[in-house]
Design a protein that fits this description.
This protein is an alpha/beta fold and 348 residues long. The protein is built from 16 helices and five strands. Strands 1-2-3-4-5 form a five-stranded mixed sheet, covered by helices on one side. It is globular, with a radius of gyration of 22 Å.
Length: 348
């Protein structure tokens, strides 16, 4: 596994994209989390992953989503999966999602200028948690209750909703039937709860099964990278000592290989930064820098969603902040503040 791939798997959005780009994972997910009557009409043999680079292209690096084309009841359709991993639920997610879907339709017409119809889009939001999703999924609710008292007005407003899979309340190991999907979702849930050891202990049997499956080698490697990245309180030695007594030889070897790759990369990063205090310090520093950058991008994404383009001065000031608690506070402020000027004052 090269350094670029390792870096992708370290991030929440990177692991999501890599895991759900695996056909076994994505098909199992849609089979379980789309309405049963829709699933019966889907020809999963026609399902293909499509590019999303055209969606809000200037901010594509801050958005985690996947788009699939598929036939539903013989009709060309789209399944759009949006991944939400911010610490606070985004109030305007329904508006964001509708905007993204409009861009998907525009791209479809660009590629099919003679078409007289649009493909249906089924939008689904995957909330990683740990905060529970407590806002409506109905777009019409954004207009407020007063609209319902005005005769006839509702007939001219958009009426749609998105599906929701909320990991904050979902228990993958108990509720998912497919082993590979249950394992991926369980890790995504526990890593947000800072409980990677619990994941590894509970999913040891699943991992033993997956290590022998064809076509899942890259995903299994990604699972271990994501495990090691996501739990700063647990070092490699603790994970190894906890699991190597229970794991099979093949699984042990896989774990060791990934750990060695991460340690070596951590040492190189440590040297580049002038840190020469050994392997552990290099790895921990590399992991910490990745988390700080992730927090900065969360803040910029919230600003972009609320106010449009992120001003250069704000981007530069955020780049100077390396305190994780401060960045989390600014992320909440970016969601809360009514005006961009009010947020900018908090940076001074």
């Amino acid at each position: 596994m090269n350094e670029e791939t390792l870096e992708r798997y370290r991030r929440h959005d990177g692991f999501f994209k890599e895991a759900f780009s695996n056909a076994e994972v994505s098909v199992a997910f849609f089979r379980e989390h789309l309405p049963r009557e829709v699933v019966k009409e889907i020809d999963f043999g026609t399902m293909r992953q499509e590019s999303t680079e055209f969606i809000n292209a200037d901010l594509s690096h801050l958005r985690a989503d996947l788009l699939y084309s598929v036939e539903i009841g013989g009709v060309e359709s789209r399944l759009y999966l949006l991944f939400e991993h911010q610490s606070e639920v985004e109030k305007w997610m329904r508006l964001r999602l509708l905007g993204y879907e409009c861009e998907i339709w525009r791209e479809y017409l660009r590629k099919n200028p003679g078409s007289e119809t649009l493909p249906p889009i089924v939008g689904l939001v995957l909330n990683q948690g740990p905060g529970k999703w407590e806002i409506s999924t109905e777009f019409a609710d954004l207009f407020g209750e007063g609209v319902n008292r005005i005769p006839g007005l509702g007939d001219y407003l958009p009426k749609c909703r998105h599906l929701l899979m909320d990991l904050a309340i979902h228990e993958p190991l108990e509720e998912e039937r497919e082993v590979v999907l249950a394992t991926v979702l369980e890790l995504m849930k526990r890593i947000k709860e800072r409980d990677v050891l619990r994941f590894l202990e509970r999913c040891l049997g699943n991992l033993e099964e997956l290590v022998d499956r064809e076509g899942l080698e890259g995903l299994l490697e990604g699972i271990f990278v994501y495990c090691y990245q996501g739990e700063s309180a647990v070092d490699y030695d603790k994970i190894r000592d906890n699991l190597e007594k229970k794991a099979s030889g093949k699984l042990k070897e896989k774990m060791r290989t990934i750990a060695e790759q991460l340690i070596n990369q951590g040492v190189e990063q440590g040297i580049d930064l002038g840190l020469r205090r050994g392997i552990d310090l290099g790895v921990k520093q590399g992991i910490d820098l990745g988390r700080i950058e992730s927090l900065r991008e969360d803040v910029m994404e919230a600003i972009a969603i609320r106010f449009g383009d992120v001003p250069r001065v704000i981007s530069e000031r955020l780049g100077e902040i390396s305190d994780k608690a401060r960045l989390k506070e600014l992320h909440r402020a970016a969601i809360r503040e009514e005006r961009l000027e009010d947020f900018e004052r908090l940076l001074s």
